[in-house]
Amino acid sequence: MRPIIFLTTLLLSLTGTVKSQGSVEKANQFISQLNESQKLNTLFPFDGEERYNYHFVPYERKGITFNEMNADQKTAAFDLLKTCLSEAAYNKTKEIMQLENVLIELEKRKPDDHFRDPGNYHISIFGIPSAKTIWGWRFEGHHISFNFSFDKKNLSSGTPAFLGTNPAIVLSGSKAGTQVLKDETDRGFALLNSLSKAQLQKTIIDTVAYKDILSFDKRNALLGDPAGIKYSDLNKSQQALLLQLVSAYVHRFTTLFADKMLKEIQQAGLDKLWFAWAGHTKAEMGNGNGAYYRVQGPTILIEYDNTQNNSNHIHSVLRDLKHDFGGDDLLQHYKNDHSAH
Known about the structure:
Order of helices and strands: HHHEEHHEEEEEHHEEHHEEEHEH
Shape: globular
Strand content: 15-25%
Number of helices: 11
Distance between the termini: 53 Å
Structural class: alpha+beta
Radius of gyration: 20 Å
Number of domains: 2
Number of strands: 13
Mean pLDDT: 92
Largest sheet: 13 strands, mixed
Helix content: 25-40%
């Protein structure tokens, strides 16, 4: 069965309800292991501005860090993360945390310098996790940001979902050859390299890659009118490659929630997906020739940028244009529930 036909059949067979796989229980198990001081640094209201304090650079954040956790608390934190992410994304997340050790070596950081720190990743919980409440939580630090929102036990959003890597490919040392975001890179170039000359003229919107993803840390990820080449202007094989690229990002989440997102993409219209490219068109890293791509549709924005550190430093993000940070509908539902009491 062709990939595009298989995906279409899968999407049409899905139901709309996606229950988290034990997130409420795992969130409460994590909270129960915190002392009162740690709880003050971890728990926030769902309707506060802190929930929108999204970024992916190494800076001071709110929320408890892994450096402040004991072994049991760390285990509970990762157990909670496993309920929301696919196995592949969970492994990527842990690998990105360990890239901080690579940067310590590359940048020759001193022992008392904690700018690069694999323990400086934060967990914040918003609202009260239960089967009867609206709540959320965030996992964030350098090059990682997942923002989960729940309507009771149902995961309603996991975005912004940012993963980045520096180095994109580790060139030396014990981790040499490590390429955490290989799928995101290879699938983007595979689609680009499948295009004809005429198609490339539509797709390439700039000969120079942007300095970073354009949505950056913005609460609103809308970038204006789509650009590049439309899904309908691709042949069947190319359409399958575009859907495989989308899948690499959407399947950062558990299968059930990823399938829900894919269903919304299909319902909004696959023909409304656009693919755009800027910069270098060869699959090379570390030579200063940066590359940027994005996939844009009515419900999603995907961005990938590899320009920094001599084009060996990737930023990649998935934004849900309807449900980022849970979306306005979920927040209004929360407010209505609380005004009724």
